[in-house]
Amino acid sequence: MSDEIDMSTVDTNVDVSTANTMRERAGESRLKLWLLLRANRLVVTAVLALTVFVVFVVGVTILPPPLIPKLSSGDTIGTMFSTMIGAVITGTTLVVTIGQLVLSQENGPLGDQHERMTNSMDFRDYTEELVGSPSPADPSAFLRELVNVSQDRAEAVREGLSDIDSDQLQWEINEFTDSLIGNSETVREQLDGAKFGSFDVLFAALNYNYGWKIFQVERLLHEHEEDLGQPENDLLNELKIALSMFGPAREHVKTLYFEWALVTLSQLILYAAIPALAVAGIMLAAVDAGTLPGSTLGIENMTWLIGAAFTVTLLPFFLLASYISRIVTVAKRTLAIEPLILRDSQR
């Protein structure tokens, strides 16, 4: 076979490569994905709190003037913050209970714990055979090793199938391996130095589009069966095995991150609930229309005070919204561990 592929005989409409990173696959704005996934959850919480505070103050100011006296009245303040006390207590109790239910899967009799340990060690042993060295203990290094193996086997496929006497297959192999190797290099750079507990490890794992790659290997094996001999089939199947190992590894890291995030969320909500209850209690017991007379920047001081207090009492909910928005976004994008494409943007 000549070194050059005869492009006149190649059907370039075959969809071999695809958008690899989650941003490219999502078909959504960069800002939206940043807010939902990459942004620090405390920063998102602060943005939500500031937004509500500004909307509250501006809304009260621009609405008809009778609203300000009504807002400052003792009855309105009492009704408003007595309701918030109940909401904070109920919401905090519910969130902490849900977190404990999720974590209850970590508890169990000795037999269940032994089975968990056995399954985990079996997977690590198989990974050790795959990578040729002991499985790393750090989650980012563990995933990086699996990515390295996939890239090495993709390069072996490209080299091993370079003499195949089929321009179409040759072109598809080049396109496929170029896409896989490029994706591997990107993800490996993102995993380098990433620490578990932050979202960086899981975000890098989400950027590795292993499901589509497995499908492409299966398609190549099926559609070009006549052009492939046993050595070529072995190379492709070895690549498929390496890619298939990444799926359960990513899901395990995702599960651990979800549990970590829910524990963190429960802690933060408990911390935020205490000042929220204190502020609501003070507003309920000690604040009335004459507490803070005058105005600042053309806005009644009582409006500033009530807006700030209302925002503080909402902090537990803002924390819940910021953390759960990330968790459900990740869960929705990783529903299928096998090569199933659920989003239209990838089809």
Task: Describe the 3D structure.
With 347 residues, this protein is an all-alpha fold. The protein has helices spanning 22-26, 30-38, 41-62, 67-72, 74-103, 110-131, 139-160, 167-191, 200-206, 210-223, 230-286, 301-313, 315-333; strands at 295-296, 299-300. Strands 1-2 form a two-stranded antiparallel ribbon. Helix 3 runs antiparallel to helix 12 (301-313), helix 9 (200-206) crosses helix 11 (230-286) and helix 10 runs antiparallel to helix 11 (230-286). The chain starts with 21 loop residues before the first helix and ends in a 14-residue tail after the last helix.
Q: Can you give me a brief rundown of this structure?
A:
This protein has 347 residues and is mainly alpha-helical. It is 72% helix and 1% strand. The protein has a two-stranded antiparallel ribbon.
Number of DSSP strands? 2
Written as H for each helix and E for each strand, in order along the chain, the element string is HHHHHHHHHHHEEHH
**Which residues sit in consecutive blocks of at least 5 with pLDDT less than 50?**
none
Shape: elongated
Q: What is the SS-derived class? A: mainly alpha
Distance between the termini: 34 Å
Helix content: over 70%
Sheet with the most strands: spatial strand order: 1-2
Reported for the largest beta sheet, the result is: 2 strands, antiparallel
Number of helices: 13
Radius of gyration: 28 Å
Mean pLDDT rating:
84
Q: Classify the beta-strand content into a percent band.
A: under 5%
User: Number of domains in the coordinates?
Assistant: 1
